[in-house]
């Protein structure tokens, strides 16, 4: 099926067009720059930016795909989880488009969309082979840090654990800010860390104590780590000593990469699932990638990472899940449904 997907859950306005698993267009406009001076995504600004960017993004995607809107088999949208006001813009636009075109409307779960990104293939790109299921999926971005057990892309997704405070990307952004690095902090810390010693400072690994590995085995916590970095930097500044930015960045990055990959690989072992998939903007992190590859190999687990343009928020991944739902025989969503900022991952289609 030919499906158009709209994504507006955070700061990316995404419109993607797919035919089954074939990627025809993936156009993204980001309001990231507008949030820079606030050090994080401001929901109100994100929602307004979606309103302004949606029409041109839609036209650009249709043009790129070389299709006519009348040829679409369905219109899909992220209905949750995400920022309420931001989600509402996409949901409203998708419903209007579906009604105007007389096409079925599919409301898709954003997190499942991140997993679905992996099945898309560019007509021009090398064949990556099929995504095998079940798989463990680790989704890490500015808004979420979730570990999933995915048995099927159309109905059986289980949440194993998630962050109990900050998301991993959020931690990168906050730590960058206290080191005086600009927003978004992830790429800045990654760059600074390349020249640093990851063993210079032993920062805490959240929720990895023996008792945590019982009660919070697959959960994450990054606020203690952020506080530890803040204390470390304050102590040096109070003593009038220079802050070794590269060493702090490398040690912090190591702590995040260590916990993320350790828990994901542990889930593979515990559940007997020898596959792990990564998604979300933090997957761009060089240390997360190498440590995931090393640990996956050592554990006999196969690792999949979609191209980065599909790891960050986009509309194509949403269209991909709707296409899977259509092929599995599921009907459209009710036009009465609204945005649901806390939509659970078990609900693949609202
Ligand atoms: P959502 O949570 O809804 O997916 P988001 O916009 O916060 O939305 P993404 O756009 O996928 O998420 O990712 C942005 C986040 O990824 C930011 O927090 C950014 O700092 C982080 N990030 C980007 N590159 C890197 C990197 N190289 N290392 C670490 N973090 C990174
Ligand atoms: Mg973003
Ligand atoms: Fe996302």
TrEMBL record:
Domain named Gcp-like: residues: 22-319
Q: Localized where? A: Cytoplasm
Task: Provide one Gene Ontology biological process annotation.
Answer: tRNA threonylcarbamoyladenosine modification
Q: Which residues cross the membrane?
A: none
Checking Gene3D superfamilies in the record gives:
3.30.420.40
Q: Does the keyword tRNA processing apply?
A: yes
Q: Which UniProt keywords apply?
A: Acyltransferase, Cytoplasm, Iron, Metal-binding, Transferase, tRNA processing
Report the catalytic activity.
L-threonylcarbamoyladenylate + adenosine(37) in tRNA = N(6)-L-threonylcarbamoyladenosine(37) in tRNA + AMP + H(+)
This protein's source sits in the domain of life called: Bacteria
Annotated EC: 2.3.1.234
User: Which family does the similarity line name?
Assistant: Belongs to the KAE1 / TsaD family.
Quote the function comment for this protein. Answer: Required for the formation of a threonylcarbamoyl group on adenosine at position 37 (t(6)A37) in tRNAs that read codons beginning with adenine. Is involved in the transfer of the threonylcarbamoyl moiety of threonylcarbamoyl-AMP (TC-AMP) to the N6 group of A37, together with TsaE and TsaB. TsaD likely plays a direct catalytic role in this reaction.
What name does this protein carry?
Answer: tRNA N6-adenosine threonylcarbamoyltransferase
This protein's encoding gene: tsaD
């Amino acid at each position: 099926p030919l499906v158009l997907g709209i994504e507006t859950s955070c700061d990316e306005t995404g419109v993607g067009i797919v035919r089954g698993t074939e990627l025809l267009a993936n156009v993204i406009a980001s309001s990231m720059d507008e949030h820079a001076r606030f050090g994080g995504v401001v929901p109100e600004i994100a929602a307004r930016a979606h309103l302004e960017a949606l029409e041109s993004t839609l036209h650009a995607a249709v043009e790129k795909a070389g299709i006519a809107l009348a040829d679409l088999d369905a219109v899909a949208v992220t209905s949750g989880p995400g920022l309420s006001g931001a989600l509402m813009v996409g949901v409203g636009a998708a419903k209007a488009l579906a009604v105007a075109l007389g096409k079925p409307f599919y409301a898709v779960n954003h997190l499942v969309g991140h997993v679905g990104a992996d099945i898309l293939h560019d007509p021009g790109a090398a064949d990556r082979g099929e995504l095998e299921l079940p798989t463990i999926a680790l989704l890490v971005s500015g808004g979420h840090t979730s570990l999933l057990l995915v048995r099927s892309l159309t109905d059986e997704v289980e949440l194993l654990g998630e962050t109990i405070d900050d998301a991993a990307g959020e931690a990168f952004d906050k730590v960058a800010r206290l080191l005086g690095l600009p927003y978004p902090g992830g790429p800045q810390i990654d760059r600074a860390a390349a020249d640093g010693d990851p063993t210079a400072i032993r920062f805490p690994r959240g929720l990895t104590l023996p008792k945590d590995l019982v009660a919070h085995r697959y959960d994450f916590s990054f606020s203690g780590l952020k506080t530890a970095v803040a204390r470390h930097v304050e102590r040096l500044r109070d003593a009038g000593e220079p802050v070794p930015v590269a060493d702090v960045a490398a040690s912090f990055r190591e702590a995040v990469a260590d916990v993320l990959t350790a828990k994901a690989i542990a889930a593979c072992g515990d559940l007997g699932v020898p596959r792990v998939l990564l998604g979300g903007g933090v997957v761009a992190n060089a240390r997360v990638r190498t440590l995931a590859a090393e640990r996956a190999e050592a554990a006999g687990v196969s690792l999949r990472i979609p191209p980065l343009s599909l790891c960050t928020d986009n509309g194509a991944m949403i269209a991909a899940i709707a296409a899977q739902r259509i092929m599995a025989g599921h009907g459209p969503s009710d036009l009465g449904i609204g945005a649901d900022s806390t939509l659970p991952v078990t609900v693949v289609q609202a």
